[in-house]
Amino acid sequence: MQMSQCIWTSHEMLGPFRFGPSIQRNFSKSIRRSAGDSRSRATSYPSFMAAISTGSTQHAAVSTEDDSTTKTHQPLQVAKRLEKFKTTIFTQMSMLAIKHGAINLGQGFPNFDGPEFVKEAAIQAIKDGKNQYARGYGVPDLNSAVASRFKKDTGLEVDPEKEVTVTSGCTEAIAATMLGLINNSDEVILFAPFYDSYEATLSMAGAKIKCITLRPPDFSVPIDELKSAISKNTRAILINTPHNPTGKMFTREELNVIASLCIENDVLVFTDEVYDKLSFEMDHISMASLPGMYERTVTMNSLGKTFSLTGWKIGWAIAPPHLTWGLRQAHSFLTFATCTPMQYAAAAALRAPESYYEELKRDYGAKKAILVEGLKAVGFKVFPSSGTYFVVVDHTPFGLKDDIAFCEYLIKEIGVVAIPTSVFYLNPEDGKNLVRFTFCKDEGTLRSAVKRMKEKLLLRN
Q1: Where are the alpha helices (H) located in 206-287, listed in sequence order?
Q2: What pLDDT sits at residue 200?
Q3: pLDDT score, position 80
Q4: Do residues 292 and 304 make contact, with C-beta atoms less than 8 angstroms apart?
Q5: Taking the mean position of all CA atoms in its chain, how far away is CA 2?
Q6: Is pTM beyond 0.70 here?
Q7: Which Gene3D superfamilies match (predicted)?
Q8: Helices and strands (DSSP H and E) totals, the chain
Q9: CA 41, 42, 43: angle at the middle one, nearest 5?
């Protein structure tokens, strides 16, 4: 793909949902069938039904009758900068999973609980009356714990009061960083495929997105393409390592090149490192730890993935004071403060001994082996995953036309959920051959999913 094809302004990103017409039409039909004909169900999920609509937003009010009561529903409304995003693919696939009783290896949250000592710390904080608004940028105990953990991981000493900001999950850290540090029409470079909130929050910030596509089998960074993408208007490069959805980890060589380009061109780096403790084949390297990079880097992380507590939504951003100022300004008007008792529990979690992280990695390594070996046995082409709890595969051996069609077939006929990766690209064609599975499930669930695929999908190959 030429670079010109992958440069979008926030205005240009206002078109329909990224699926092509035929893909969107077929997928929408299947979800409408899955949602059923019940009026009560349709009206219970307005955002979901809006997301799967193949036409433009209706401008006439829709009336439905429920016994003797007549209800008038106004057309759904959304700002144009968010019009294209609608309901996420995760919601859509989860709805189909429920309808068909499928095993959900799509959405990336564990089906098991976090450690008892962390939950007990939360309970104790509640009992101790730590239930009112927290300080806007975090309770001191958690700020200190984040700084201490960061020093252990990177060797960098940061000021917990001036350089650590606690947020409502890493997703809010991302939003606060974009909204607080990106100006209208600033260029930001993303690596596709990418976590879906990146594009949405950059759209809200009015940024101009430049997209560098990472391609299988190793999803390595095309250095020459990256160099040509940087211009005098480039404000930041956004990196996710370990990388969702591919499981790629940026190598030291790749990070060094990116660092030198940023220093040479006075570009910031926003780095999403929520999977830093789930690195398998190589050590995680934080961009901020490279020479000359801390002063131009915002490092974002969270509690949820490492401690299997995704519902707590405790995240943080680490940055030098001159960058912290902007992201804290945005944070103040997004959430202001994060759940108080959970912050105290998060501090306890981050002080866990190193043995916890070692056991976590062993446990996920065993889960990964079950899924990867099963997928290979079924006939998928499985790409290497060095980190995260995701695996990306090529589904084309099974003869379905694209990732949407394959995932739909997998749910309905096999009873297993995967995520189509085309939704993680500016150009969906780049991801149409790939789907993503997660192994953040208990071993019994993973074995059951593999068994279903061996019994039904293997016959198709």
Answers
A1: 223-229, 252-265
A2: 93
A3: 86
A4: no
A5: 26
A6: yes
A7: Aspartate Aminotransferase, domain 1, Type I PLP-dependent aspartate aminotransferase-like (Major domain)
A8: 16, 16
A9: 95
SS3 71: strand
Closest CA to 176 of 398, 6, 336: 336
3-state helix, strand and coil shares in percent for the chain, rounded to the nearest 5: 50, 15, 35
**85 phi/psi in degrees, rounded to 5:** -85, -45
Lowest-confidence region among 4-13, 63-72, 249-258, 270-279: 4-13
E-only strand ranges, 314-377: 315-318
Residue 444: CB partners within 8 Å, gap ≥ 6?
none
Q: Which helix (H) or strand (E) holds 70?
A: strand 69-73
SS3 186: coil
Q: Residues 45-52: contacts with CB within 8 Å, 24+ apart?
A: 45/95, 46/73, 46/76, 47/76, 47/86, 47/87, 48/87, 48/91, 48/92, 48/95, 50/76, 50/86, 50/87, 51/17, 51/86, 51/87, 51/91, 51/92, 52/27, 52/28, 52/87, 52/92
Phi/psi class of residue 22: alpha, beta or left (left: φ > 0; alpha: ψ in -120 to 50)?
alpha
User: Residue 169 has which token pair?
Assistant: 């999950």
- In the 8-state DSSP scheme, what is residue 287? G
DSSP codes of every residue in 81-105: GGTTT-S-HHHHHHHHHHHHT-EE-
User: Three-state SS for 284?
Assistant: coil
Distance of CA 317 to the CA centre of its chain: 16
Q: Which domains does the chain have, with CATH numbers?
A: 89-113+355-457 (3.90.1150.10), 116-354 (3.40.640.10)
CB of 75 closer than 8 Å to CB of 59: yes
Average pLDDT score over residue span 314-329: 98
Strand partners, 416: 103
Of residues 195 and 92, which shows the higher confidence score? 195
Side-chain-side CA neighbours of residue 123 (13 Å): 6
Q: What angle do CA 300, 249, 390 make, to 5 degrees?
A: 85
Give me the sign of the Cα torsion angle 29, 35, 37, 39: negative
- Dump the DSSP string for 152-183: HHHS----TTTSEEEESHHHHHHHHHHHHH--
Confidence band of 66 (pLDDT split at 50, 70, 90) = very low
- Residue 271's pLDDT is 98
For residue 281, the one-letter residue type is E
Would you state the torsion angle of the CA atoms of residues 142, 143, 149, 151, taken in this order, to the nearest 10 degrees? Answer: -160
Q: CA-to-CA distance for 45 and 330, rounded, in angstroms?
A: 30
pLDDT at position 5 = 37
